[in-house]
Write a structure and sequence with these properties.
The protein has three domains: about 5-30 and about 90-280, no CATH class; about 285-405, Immunoglobulins (Immunoglobulin-like, Sandwich), CATH 2.60.40.10; about 405-545, Sandwich (Immunoglobulin-like), CATH 2.60.40. About 25% of the residues lie in helices and about 35% in strands. It contains twelve helices and 28 strands. The protein has helices at about 5-25, 40-45, 50-60, 65-70, 75-90, 100-115, 125-135, 190-200, 220-225, 240-245, 250-270, 280, and strands spanning about 140-145, 145, 150-155, 155-160, 165-170, 180, 210, 290-295, 300-310, 320, 325-335, 340-355, 365-375, 375-385, 390-400, 410, 415-420, 430, 435, 440-445, 450-455, 465-475, 480, 485, 495-500, 505-510, 520-530, 535-545. Strands 16, 17, 18, 19, 21 and 26 form a six-stranded antiparallel β-sheet that branches. The protein has a five-stranded antiparallel β-sheet with strand order 6-5-4-1-7. Strand 23 and strand 24 (about 485) form a beta hairpin. Helix 6 (about 100-115) packs antiparallel against helix 7 (about 125-135) and helix 8 packs across helix 11 (about 250-270). The chain is elongated.
């Protein structure tokens, strides 16, 4: 080869490499979660090496506000406390001791540092970042590079996640062992993309590939828990028999479309869900309806009731000695604004039926956990656990409890599936009433709507009697069509009555007929007027009617 031709080839290599770098900047996937901010580098210098390592692993989870807050803390102790609170807030099972998300994340970070280590920050290349974000792939393929007269193909790797239907390509442009995301992988021809797809799934696309097996780089203990991605069946793989019968162009088109979809899924996940954990893919959540109702408790406290309803069709019943039985454990934990645990409680729902092949009891099983809290702001973790199937329903919510003092006030309105008088020691008892909670707040006609609430701070006469008026209105939340136009929204039902009772604290139960209501959502507004002081207090909540 002449000296001029060598120079020309070198220039082609450099031009291709330069163009590739430009394309890499332009086509890099969106990673808004881990974007840096001005001053980040200066703040990082103040951390210890271990703190920097922890931060680089957490950067894919934190937003910019959290990064600035963490790096702005003055001492190592404050930063350690911040991380503990951070992981508590992300715990997928907040009422249990184990934090599955933290355990898996920290394992991924250690593996990224071990397998794809780099001296410069963050301590790993893009393969390490992908491992931290999405776990270990189902298939990892090594692709070999090639230099042509007009074209340079760098060596690299292809990772494929079956349950996410996501394909990630890496290139080793510098040949130094630092892998970056592939430059514009969708810019190849359809045939090249089809060959890429076949290389991942049946190793028949090219001889320039080799599968990297986990046992080559990891022990079974290291990779356990982060590879359990519940592989889905691929709906189409062009096997050899089909290739013989089908036109080659058709096969290439189908496989190119599947390849493009898998690559696009990578960009989609990086933008919309840049971290996915194996338990999130595997879990089959137990559906749970819940609401929270607050009533005055002892001095300075709020009786906080977390009410549950779980579809009995979703619960696993087991037959034993001719009895169908199921059990659901309910757990609730409350933290303050600093994620310090304040109180936790639990309950158990038991359902049993003699004989029969299927459970024919109530369609929803009710439960209730009661916490005694002071007025304030709380984070609430809620979990329902089916003891027979192992399915969980896990939820979080924020709760602000206002004080219920001595002035005129209302409790929350509690919807019930039934309210009856009782003198027995029964579940869901409130004084001499049993109020079975109905957090779904959905009633079928013609069955009535049952409500319970409490009134506080009523003025009393010398005999201790309080006199007050209760008025309620039911207002549709959606306009009804009347011919070609919509009717104005008017109360569907309204009523008022005067009553009295001993003491400034009174209990009210309402039963509202549904014959004059229709399918849809409604708002209930309750007003109470103290007839001695003429003070008025009002509360409201939503419910729905089903046909």
């Amino acid at each position: 080869m002449t000296h001029r031709m060598q120079e020309k080839r070198s220039s082609i290599w450099m031009a291709a490499l330069l163009a590739s770098v430009v394309c890499l900047v332009l086509s890099a996937p969106t990673r808004s979660v881990s974007e840096s901010f001005e001053g980040e580098t200066d703040r990082l210098r103040k951390l210890t090496p271990q703190e920097r390592f922890n931060y680089f692993g957490l950067q894919y989870v934190m937003n910019q506000f959290q990064k600035k807050h963490f790096l702005g803390l003055g001492t190592g102790g404050e930063r350690r406390e911040w991380i503990e609170r951070f992981w508590i807030d992300l715990d997928p099972t907040p009422t249990t001791e184990a934090n599955e998300r933290r355990i898996e994340h920290e394992k991924r970070v250690r593996l990224a540092r071990k397998l794809f280590s780099k001296k410069k920050a963050p301590g790993w290349d893009k393969r390490g970042e992908t491992l931290i974000r999405f776990g270990w792939p189902n298939r990892r393929i090594e692709t070999f590079g090639n230099i042509g007269f007009y074209r340079m193909i760098p060596p690299g790797e292809i990772w494929y996640y079956e349950s996410l239907d996501m394909l990630v390509e890496f290139h080793n442009f510098s040949l130094s062992g630092e892998f970056v995301y592939a430059i514009n992988p969708l810019g190849r021809t359809g045939r090249e993309n089809a060959d890429r797809w076949k290389s991942v799934h049946d190793m028949s696309g090219s001889g320039n590939v080799r599968e990297i097996l986990p046992v080559e780089v990891l022990s079974l203990e290291e990779i356990e828990d982060i590879v359990a991605f519940n592989p889905d069946e691929i709906d189409y793989i062009a096997d050899s028999d089909i290739r013989i019968r089908q036109p080659k162009d058709l096969i290439a088109i189908i496989e190119q479309e599947k390849y493009n979809r898998s690559v696009n899924n990578f960009y989609k996940f990086m933008k919309e869900q840049p971290l996915v954990y194996s338990f999130e893919i595997e879990q089959d959540l137990l559906p749970v309806a819940f609401d929270i109702t607050a009533f005055r408790g002892g001095p300075g406290t709020i009786r906080t009731e977390i009410n549950f309803e779980i579809p009995s069709s979703e619960v696993n019943f087991i037959r034993k000695e001719g009895v169908l039985s199921a059990g659901i454990d309910l757990r609730v934990v409350a933290w303050d604004i600093n994620m310090k645990e304040i109180e936790r409680g639990g309950d158990r729902i038991n359902a049993a039926q003699k004989g029969g092949e299927i459970f024919i009891g109530p369609s929803h099983l009710p439960g209730q956990v009661i916490l005694t809290l002071k007025p304030g702001y709380y984070r609430i973790g809620i979990e329902a656990y089916d003891t027979n199937s192992g399915r969980r329903g896990v939820y979080r919510t924020n709760l602000e409890l206002a004080p219920l003092g001595e002035t005129l006030g209302l409790s929350d309105i509690q919807y019930a599936s039934s309210i009856r008088e009782t003198t027995e020691n029964v579940k869901f008892a409130k004084g001499n009433l049993q109020v079975v909670p109905h957090p779904l707040r959905a009633y079928r006609r013609p069955f009535p709507v049952h409500l319970y609430f409490e009134i506080y701070g009523l003025d009393t006469d010398k005999a201790g009697l309080a006199f007050y008026t209760v008025e309620y209105r039911i207002i549709p939340l959606e306009k009804r069509r009347k011919g070609p136009v919509f009717e104005d929204i008017q109360p569907a039902i309204s009523s008022r009555f005067e009553t009295s009772g001993f003491g400034g604290r009174q209990v009210q139960r309402l039963t509202i007929a549904t014959e004059n209501l229709w399918k849809g959502s409604f708002r209930l507004v309750v007003s109470v007027k103290d007839r001695r002081t003429f003070q008025v207090v009002e509360g409201g909540s939503k419910f729905s009617i089903l046909d």
